[in-house]
Amino acid sequence: MTVDHINVEASIKQVKDLMAAESNLSPALKASIEVLLLLISILVSRLGLNSKNSSKPPSTDPNRIKKSRKTGEHKPGGQPGHKGKTLQKVEDPDEIKIIPVDRNTLPQGQYREAGYETRQVIDVDITTVVTEWRAEILEDSQGKRYVAPFPEGVTRPVQYGIGVKVNAVYMSQYQLIPYNRIEDHFQDQMRIPVPHQETNHLKVYPKNLRL
Questions:
Q1: Could you tell me the pTM of the whole model?
Q2: What is the distance of C-alpha 90 from the center of its chain?
């Protein structure tokens, strides 16, 4: 998309290429730039949304021209020629579980393995990953302590990771999920408390997601 004669997609790609080429870029700065690029992509995509390319109702389209529809012009549901979508098996499943035949249920005789009949269950696994950084401490004969430095960006005893922040921004700014429901999502699904605050009727979410 072009905004004010600026190709947004090309500009974002250029920034990502520069980040990949810069080996001395700090992890904290890199994560911050990635969040900003995500926000830009979300906001730009919302500029071009209408009822034809999103779930927005036609009433929100600018300069909308109302068209009269004849009663019974189309039947409810999928129309002829509409291609449906269904789950497809994957070639490299993440986990394979073998179900052996209970030999005790078989008639007496000789048997050989003849392969498997397969069925796949596609599911999601919502997990919380906690990384604990332990900085080694050395002490000399005089009692002076030497502590290994923590990685840049790891500045607090407990803090949120970039994944939490990106998901919070995605749900609030792109999916337009209410803040309280996002808070409930993190608490109920992952046991992560992510509070929000309200300042001058402008909700800033979340208040303490620090990289």
A1: 0.45
A2: 21
